[in-house]
Amino acid sequence: MKSITRQKPFSEVVQLLDRFDRVYIIGCGTCATMARTGGRDEVLDMKNRLQETGKLVTGWTVIPTACDEMTEAAARENEGAIKNANCSLVMACALGVHRVNSYLNNKAVIPALDTLFIGMEDSPGSFYEACAQCGQCVLGETAGICPLTACNKGLLNGPCGGTNNGRCEVDKEKDCAFTLIYQRLKEQGRLDLMRKYHPPKNYQVVPRPRIINLG
């Protein structure tokens, strides 16, 4: 499982950094490196582009995994350069931004990336969203295929009227999620589940912010 990210437009990054003249850049050696959005090459490119706009980059680092405890060690190791900056630009997923912010809460922490989804790899470099983390899993009745993520429309009951020869109306190169569910349920001898109605999601089941105590 990887956090799939994309870089914000550089113009947006510049706007977010408008009030800051000294920047420390933090990348991630795991997901963002894999996605080519926040690895060493991307961090150095960002450093050069910011310097061209007149920003002083006091330093940079690529934390092996920005969303875990390695962030604290990296913050200590680079304390001088971080203190010399008036903000940190984080080229990691939202979890990495939260982690950095927890250790640098006296400094502004600015995200350089947008987190798109948590993805599973089906072939080298190709990822798909497998779970929307909705808190009301229906996989037991949909043959292990999540309609919220597999259906382009996020339907819980389908197929819609636009499906054609097993293909999706929105993306004609993609199999209809409910065709896949139908075929798998048929193989399992559970085709009657296709007739079951799933009510709209109750988003109060898992209120935000999502907190759980397993102790």
Explained architecture:
The chain has 215 residues and is of the alpha/beta class. The chain folds into 2 domains: 2-117, Response regulator (Rossmann fold), CATH 3.40.50.2300; 131-195, no CATH class. It has helices at 10-16, 31-34, 40-52, 70-77, 79-84, 94-103, 147-150, 177-187; strands at residues 2-7, 22-28, 56-63, 87-91, 108-111, 113-123, 126-129. A 4-stranded parallel β-sheet has the order 3-2-4-5, sandwiched between helices. A 3-stranded antiparallel β-sheet has the order 1-6-7, with no helix packed on it. A hairpin with a 2-residue loop joins β6 and β7.
Please state the CA-atom Rg, rounded to the nearest Å. 22 Å
Number of helices: 8
Question: Please, how many domains?
Answer: 2
CATH class of the largest domain: Alpha Beta
Number of strands: 7
Largest sheet: 4 strands, parallel
Helices and strands in order, then pairings?
Elements: E1 2-7, H1 10-16, E2 22-28, H2 31-34, H3 40-52, E3 56-63, H4 70-77, H5 79-84, E4 87-91, H6 94-103, E5 108-111, E6 113-123, E7 126-129, H7 147-150, H8 177-187
Parallel strand pairs: 2-3, 2-4, 4-5
Antiparallel strand pairs: 1-6, 6-7
What would you say about this model in short?
The protein is α/β, with parallel strands linked by helices and 215 residues long.
